[in-house]
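ok so I'm stuck.
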Amino acid sequence: MTMRERRGRRSAVRTEALGNLLEACRLGADLEALVLSDQRGAVVAASAAAHVDARVIAAALPDPTLIAGCSLVRAVPFKHGERTLYMGAVGAGPRAFAPIPAAIEGARRILATT
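replied:
not stuck anymore, here's the structure
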């Protein structure tokens, strides 16, 4: 029995692998953006529609007061070693934020192995 690769694109380069992951998750959920930021609000990796500035999203993710009350943006903090990272999604609809857990799991895996 042969194994079929489930991913269309792969990379051994961490930033490319993270970008590929976020792109696949974003497009699969029809999000405007999916952004991974560090605790300072800098972009670690991102996938965003052409009209969205991922740097602006990343800068807001660590500060919950900046996105409070905005139903189109969700930020989920998670630990990677001693660091806190933030996965942020921008989108609408009942399942807009569904890919966040998978994106976090994939990011953890990529960050741990590359």
